[in-house]
Design goal:
Layout (H helix, E strand, L loop, with lengths): L3 H12 L13 H9 L2 H7 L7 E2 H8 L6 H13 L3 E6 L2 E6 L2 H5 L9 H12 L1 H6 L28 H6 L5 E5 L1 H8 L11 E6 H10 L3 E2 L2 H13 L3 E4 L7 E5 L5 H7 L12 E5 L9 H5 L5 E3 L4 E3 L9 H4 L6 E5 L10 H13 L1 H12 L5
Antiparallel strand pairs: 1-3, 2-3, 4-5, 4-6, 5-8, 7-8, 9-12, 10-11
Helix pairs in contact: 1-2, 1-3, 2-7, 16-17
């Protein structure tokens, strides 16, 4: 007989197959997180979904032996979508559903509805097991682009490295949501030391509509988006869009709260883990020793040597915050010899991550199962 704990363990193993998995934890925090998010009924249903979208009818054929009607199935899945634990999209007149990753995904969709227990469990998990999972393949979900003020005029800037062009090219809705990372820290009594800003997550296109449908964001204009980005720059926040040429979101992050930045900081050479086209360098002759860069660097890359500041290139991720806030103009961004070209789409990015994680043979098996309309 399957127990309730078995249901959640099955779900953990099922979600661990995703590009960014959900690894087990000896402490049991992985199961507690799933219990926060899913009822036992929802957990059982989630194990019947695929990592790629499938039409409602196909999912029903898989689960109809349990006695659930297609109408009941649709209602259950739609409730799970509203909770932010299942992905959904509409193509023509058909609804499609798929599993959602923990992050970026289910966790972010709990913004404005966090509890203390869930926030504490997520922070524990992000600090240990999930931190390793995030950088397992060294293909990041987010990339770093320089804040606008930091880019030298003589550099030709690719569209995907220019925040103004990224926003300008958006042809669908734009929304802003509270930062779930800072909100979690607030709830556990460890509020961000970097900024009081909370509405700093910009979401675009289809993802923006999903946030609106869940009631987690408010629509804004492009001018409002630029205003938010300017405030983020003044606060010393790092711009991290989804690692794609057509990003669905841009996060304004700090090393105090961002799970991805906090995980990267634990590594001795975080620059190797980041997709970025720039690095910072200090002109020792111009440095006046104010140490503003040391105070503001989220990656602890700027260091004080006693008479001048220096940038540790093993830790620099090219965000440009130090450049934008250097009063003596002693720091400049330089373009790397090999530019970091983001994947064409978010789907391609996750396909690359999964391929690196599981190997080409596994990817071939998934493709064959997909052609056969089987669960993947």
């Amino acid at each position: 007989m399957t127990t309730e704990s078995d249901v959640y363990r099955d779900l953990q193993r099922h979600l661990d197959r995703l590009p960014i998995g959900l690894p087990s934890a000896q402490s049991g925090v992985d199961i507690r997180i799933l219990q926060h998010l899913f009822t036992p009924e929802e957990a059982r249903m989630a194990t019947q979904l695929s990592m790629l979208p499938e039409p409602l009818g196909r999912i029903h054929r898989r689960v109809k032996k349990s006695g659930v009607s297609i109408e009941e199935l649709e209602q259950l899945l739609d409730r799970m979508v509203k909770k932010g634990i299942v992905m959904s999209r509409v193509r023509g007149e058909k609804k499609y559903y798929s599993n959602e990753m923990l992050a970026v995904g289910m966790y972010e969709h709990q913004v404005d509805r966090l509890t203390v227990d869930f926030a504490e469990d997520m922070l524990q998990y992000l600090d240990k097991e999930f931190a390793t999972e995030l950088y397992r393949t060294k293909i990041p979900q987010l990339r770093t682009i320089p804040v606008e003020k930091s880019i030298p005029q003589e550099h030709s800037v690719s569209t995907y490295d220019n925040i103004r062009e990224i926003i300008g090219d958006i042809d669908g809705p734009i929304v802003v949501a509270n930062c779930v990372c800072r909100q979690a820290k607030d709830i556990v009594g460890e509020s961000c030391r970097q900024t009081d800003l909370r509405q700093t997550c910009l979401i675009f296109r289809e993802s923006a509509q999903s946030y609106l449908d869940m009631g987690l964001a408010r629509p804004i204009t492009k001018d409002e988006a630029f205003d938010i980005l300017q405030k983020a720059e003044h606060a010393g926040l790092i711009l991290q869009p989804i690692n794609s040429q057509r990003p669905q979101a841009v996060c304004c992050c700090c090393g105090d709260c961002c799970g991805i930045l906090m995980a990267a900081k634990k590594f001795p050479r975080p620059a190797e883990l980041y997709a970025t086209s720039y690095y910072a360098e200090v002109n020792a002759k111009l440095c006046n020793g104010c140490q503003t860069c040391v105070d503001q660097c989220q990656m602890q890359a700027a260091v004080w040597l006693g008479d001048v500041c220096q940038v540790n290139l093993d830790r620099c991720i090219g965000c440009g915050i130090c450049v934008a806030n250097c009063t003596s103009k002693a720091i400049r961004l330089h373009k790397k010899e090999v530019e970091s070209l983001p994947p064409k789409s978010t789907g391609v990015m996750y396909k690359n991550i999964l391929s690196r994680k599981t190997g080409k043979w596994h990817m071939l098996k998934l493709a064959m199962k997909r052609l056969a309309r089987l669960q993947v």
